[in-house]
Each structure stands twice: as C-alpha cells, then as structure tokens.
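Help wanted!
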Amino acid sequence: MSDQQQDRPDLSRRRKPQAAPDERVDPVDYRQRAPTPQAAPVVSQAPVATAGAAPRRGRPRREATVPFSTRLAPDVLELIDAASAAEDGATIRSVVEAAIREKYQTK
Amino acid sequence: MIESMQTLMVYSESGGVSKTTTAVSIAMTAAGQGRRTVLVDLDPRAAATKWLDVAPSGEGLHVGAILGDDDPQGWGEDLAVQSNWSNNLRVIPSARNVSNREADRADHAELRLRTALVGISADLVVIDCPNRQGGPLILSALNAADSIVYAATASSDGVDGVAGARRTVEQFRLSRERIGAPVTLSEAGIVCGRVQETIPSRPAVASTDELRATGMLLMPLVPERAIIQEVRLTGEWYGNYRKGAPVLSAYTKIVNQVIR
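Answered by r_m:
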C-alpha cells in the first residue's frame, strides 16, 4: 500500500451525466452501427439466365407511420371524434393530419 | 450494523398486469413511511414517469443516459428528480427512446444501472421494469436488484407473465452460477392486483389458484378501484383520496412484507 493512496475518490472530478449519443434518434429510426464490410467469398457460378426482380407476394407493405402516443385532453378527443364522424370517409388520422397541416405548415 | 439499501425490481413478462401500479405504490408507501426512496422507471413506455408527472432535469437526462454510457458512476444521484408527491420520493424518469438501449449490446452494458446506483442517497430503490423476455433492460434490472416482486392480475396474462418472469430469473441465476458469481437476488413474492371484489369469474378464480400454488402469492389481494386509472390521468397519488383507501391499505400490508 502506498502512502499516496487516497481515502476515497474525488467526487468533484466525477463526470457529469450526459445524454446518450442517440438521444435524438427515435426508436423507429434507430439502426445499429453497420458491421465492417467483408469481402464476399468468390463462388464459381454456373451460367444462369438473368432473372428479373422476383414478383412481390402477399399484401403491399403498409405506409410508414409514427405512433402518436401523446395523451390528449378529453375535449380534443371529442373534437377529433366529431370531425371524423361528420366527414364522410374521414379517419382519425386524416382529421389530425389536416388540422396540424392547416395550423403549422409554413408553405 | 449499518442497514444497507434495498433495491427491488417489479417485473412481469406480460403487459397491463399492474407492474407500474405496484412499483409506484410500493415506492410511495415506503416514502410515506419515512424511507428515502428512488423510483427508477426502466420502461420506455414511461408510464410511471407520466403518472408522477416528472420530467428529466435536462434533455436526455433520463435512465437512458445511464444505460447509454460506459461509466455512469454516481449518475443515479444526479438524475433523480424530486417528486412533488413526497419529500422522500425521487424519480429517475424514462423516455420513449430508452428503447434504443434494447439494441445496445455493448460489453457489460447490463452493469451500468447497478454502477449508477452505488452510493445513492436512498434506503430503497424500486425499479419499474418493462414487460420483456430478458434482454438488456431486464438484465440491467436483474444486476441492480437484490429482491424482486412479480406483478400479476387474476388472469391468464397475469399467470403467464409471472411464469415467464420466473423463468428469466432462473436463467439469470444459472448464468451467474456458471461463472461463479454470487447470486443475491431473492424473490419477495407475487402481488396480485385489480382483483374484483364482487363474485369473481371462474378464470379469475383459476388464475388466483395458480398464483397461490407457487407459494409466493402475497396477501392481501389488491382490490380493483377506478380511482387508480383516474389518478393516473391527473398525475396524482391515490392515497390522497378516500376512494383509494382500500388499495392503499392492501399495498401497505404488502410493503411491510417485501421491504426490509
């Protein structure tokens, strides 16, 4: 044991908390760091006819949406319900999107 | 002998089985009994954070900061924000993008929460866990906690969530034993919440019997009361209301069994 050894750590030198580097990345957009690219193994190929892209099977992919998980005031919920019920074919999503575009879209 | 801090995790692999209600109730009841308590919201859904209506002290300064840094020593103390429910209750809040940490497989990331809580000024730390089947968030809680309470409702989801959670805990213990590490995690019991006090349905009776058969069901069963959902909307403590008294009474008896 050294005489120079301190009794306890100097807390004033401790690092202050900081946000995670990906704090502003939404989980929907989160991607892990790409793995290091590796040389693809060389495989001798028998000549084959060039095929076009495989036809897509099944149902088309749904459009990307952002889950809207913010809690809303009851009177706003009533407004949304009333607006979507009053307009033929309107959905909750279309009503909310139209309202936000009208209020905040700059162009 | 100096009494050491207790770190209790509340866990189930099912969603909607009273995990947050149980975690918040244990934390607030203990705080009301004079224990310095810190509630760690480890769930990216941040239900406890919303209920207690607390916000991080700065951008990104929630539990995700702890889990995203390889040296978060002392950050538990720094990130705990005071709750306005009780002078004895602080909260380390959560946020949606804590979910990013579930893809973070850095070495020893599962020890960061434990590191951050060392030396924190508290008698009790309660961790509100997300409903995950293992994974980085649950491993963080398992490494930080010394006791575990399973949360359940009298339903097949409740039973299934406890069974899965116990399997996760058993696997965690086996992994620790395999590397010769001490296993200090103890099972404090199962809390069964939202129990109808009127004539129970047959599935509810069967589920309660299954929970009782584990030998870990804590009594009393916590009664269902609408006040719980009401105060979760308004960000208040149900113990402040007459309608919340039966629930508070049940959780007080449970706290006396699970808190050292």
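OP: Thanks! One thing I noticed: Residues 20 and 47 of chain B are 7 Å apart (CA to CA).
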